[in-house]
Amino acid sequence: MSARNIARFWEWGRKIICVGRNYADHAIELKNAIPSEPVLFLKPPSAYVREGSPILLPFYTSNLHHEVELGVVIGKGGTAIPQSSAMEHVAGYVLCLDMTARDIQDECKSKGLPWTLAKAFNTSCPISDFIPKEKIPNPGSINLWLKVNDIVKQNGSTSQMIFSIPYLINYISEIISLEEGDLILTGTPKGVSSVQEQDELQAGIDGIVTMTFKVDRKS
Ligand SMILES: O=C([O-])CC(=O)C(=O)O
Ligand SMILES: [Mg+2]
């Protein structure tokens, strides 16, 4: 068997830990309070989808939203990783979409139910190619953008994150041990909006990566 390659981490079946409300402008647009501690939820590895395959609309939603996010790929696992050494545990990055059934999430929020149906369905985590750590020397100050059918919807800097990447690695690993091949989604800036069948989503990190996904319905 060939050696495992971190550049194909999504094939390893490791966990996806998502941070919500990590940009004040997005918390405000959805009328949520600005959090004093990170909001966490999970997606299963079956949520991954790669360019060339479509994002599939779940049958039970009529309001699927895009959320463009920086993903942090863990290269070295650990528990209670100190902030001071947190970046040593990072192998690289991916650009991610945290696809969200917003109508279902609103319903779950009002009923006090978990967000699983809103966030964890098949193809809810489109990702770009793996970006080695050296290509993004300062992940706390890069620009993420997303267009729907060529119209810019999201454009924000990771400098607006409430909780930094080292803070998140420390916070998460105190609660959930991190393993090689895990992915952390760091939250979305403002501009989330609804997508329809046949829409084309294009997203990028300035100067580093772009990716394109089509929205489709399961045939
Ligand atoms: O669904 C939400 O608004 C929470 C979230 O994932 C984010 O802020 O990125
Ligand atoms: Mg999100």
UniProtKB/TrEMBL annotation:
It comes from the Eukaryota. GO terms for molecular function: acetylpyruvate hydrolase activity; acylpyruvate hydrolase activity; metal ion binding; oxaloacetate decarboxylase activity; oxaloacetate tautomerase activity. InterPro entries: Fumarylacetoacetase-like_C, Fumarylacetoacetase_C_sf. It catalyses: oxaloacetate = enol-oxaloacetate; oxaloacetate + H(+) = pyruvate + CO2; acetylpyruvate + H2O = acetate + pyruvate + H(+); a 3-acylpyruvate + H2O = a carboxylate + pyruvate + H(+). Keywords: Metal-binding. Its EC number is 3.7.1.5, 4.1.1.112, 5.3.2.2. One of its GO terms (cellular component) is mitochondrion. One of its GO terms (biological process) is carboxylic acid metabolic process. Residues 15-215 form the Fumarylacetoacetase-like C-terminal domain. It holds the Pfam family FAA_hydrolase. Belongs to the FAH family. PANTHER family: ACYLPYRUVASE, ACYLPYRUVASE FAHD1, MITOCHONDRIAL. This is Oxaloacetate tautomerase FAHD1, mitochondrial. The gene is LOC107670686.
